[in-house]
Amino acid sequence: MNIVLLGYPGSGKGTQAKALSEKFSLFHISTGDIFREAIAANAPLGLEVADYLAAGRLVPDKLVLEIIKDRISTETRGLLFDGFPRTVDQAQGLDDYFTARNQAVDAALFLDVDEEEVVQRLGSRRTCPKCRKIYNLLSSPPLKEGLCDGCGGKLVLREDDKPEVIHRRLGVYKDQTEPLIAYYKGIGTFHSVKGGRAPEEVAAEISAILGNRIA
Length: 215
Ligand code: AMP
Description:
Layout: E1 2-6, H1 13-24, E2 27-30, H2 31-40, H3 44-55, H4 61-72, E3 79-82, H5 88-99, E4 107-112, H6 115-124, E5 125-127, E6 134-136, H7 163-177, H8 179-187, E7 190-194, H9 199-211
Helix pairs in contact: 1-9, 2-3, 4-5, 6-7
The protein binds adenosine monophosphate.
Adenosine monophosphate binds next to helix 2 and helix 3.
């Protein structure tokens, strides 16, 4: 079972991906996390992608596809993609890769959240750079201000969640990522889920959609 999560930045993909990968024993692959970790580690990949992330622009498709293929080539579990694909070319690249292996994207789940809500969520999002847990200062704050409940790490506002970058990212989403909705509708694997609710409610609906597909 291979699943793609679609939606605006801040629509809850990361939160849902964490919960679903645990529940269904899927391999969670977040291209954004891979890039941020490479940047934090000063790895060659980090140097290559840092400017794109800082500006809220997409990393080139060719590089993204190389990284994805490298990460999934030896994985035997089902895959849960979070933040990938982000362009139709990436989606086609993934389909070609799967087709050659007799696999497919089994479900593309779109987390449907209004743009205004996404702007508000991104501004109040805080993340733990150590264990990647995601908080929202308004709806799901940490127990101790500024510290991760899970590992005690110091919570940060992502550079690209700052107001000036948020608007660019939303524009990039509309231009380059939104066409994926039509792409997956065309293939017949598309499901839309209302995202602007408590994470547990969203997860329950997604689980119901996936439940009869993962036996
Ligand atoms: P995310 O954490 O998914 O919001 O991603 C953060 C940033 O990483 C994006 O704004 C892009 O600069 C880059 N990025 C993540 N995933 C991709 C992707 N699939 N294609 C291109 N760039 C990406």
